[in-house]
């Protein structure tokens, strides 16, 4: 499947604002705006789909966390770790709360994309871009933190294994 490539003319690059051309759009600009609307529409639909998936995942994590905490008195400590089972419930609930933030950014961006398509509003496009940037910034920071925790866990696991042996 080939992707459509947008050809941006030199005139469009040097004079992007319609005020410079007497308030009229060229044919190239109109075609590019149609492509931009189609891309925004597609991105908005996919973002809504992933928003629904993330809400389902958050709900399952919360239910799993509450289940772990509720069944902890019946299960007791985890064998070989000597750790109470309810700790997993707390971890699941913390993960569910953390996942709420990127989910909200995604939903806001999807709503802004819809608004931008239907209202031709520059503010809605900027809102879409702002929330999309916030989503990816959160994902990037979260990824860096998780990589750091994984690196930190390597020596801790070595020490625990050495102490158990």
Q: Please, could you describe this protein's structure?
A:
A hairpin with a 4-residue loop joins strand 1 and strand 2. A two-stranded antiparallel sheet has the order 1-2. The longest helix is centred in the N-terminal third of the chain and has 49 residues, at 27-75. Residues 1-20 have low confidence and may be disordered. Helix 3 runs antiparallel to helix 4. The protein has helices at 10-14, 27-75, 86-119, 122-164; strands at residues 77-78, 83-84. The protein is built from 4 helices and 2 strands; from the N terminus they run H-H-E-E-H-H. The protein has one domain (23-164).
Number of helices: 4
Strands, count: 2
Give the termini distance in whole angstroms.
56 Å
What sequence of helices (H) and strands (E) makes up the elements?
A: HHEEHH
Proportion in helices: over 70%
Summarize the biggest pleated sheet: 2 strands, antiparallel
The number of domains is 1
Please mark out the parts with pLDDT under 50 across 5 or more consecutive residues, or reply none: 1-20
Proportion of beta-strand residues: under 5%
**Structural class from helices and strands?**
mainly alpha
Order of strands across the main sheet = 1-2
Radius of gyration: 24 Å
Name the overall outline: elongated
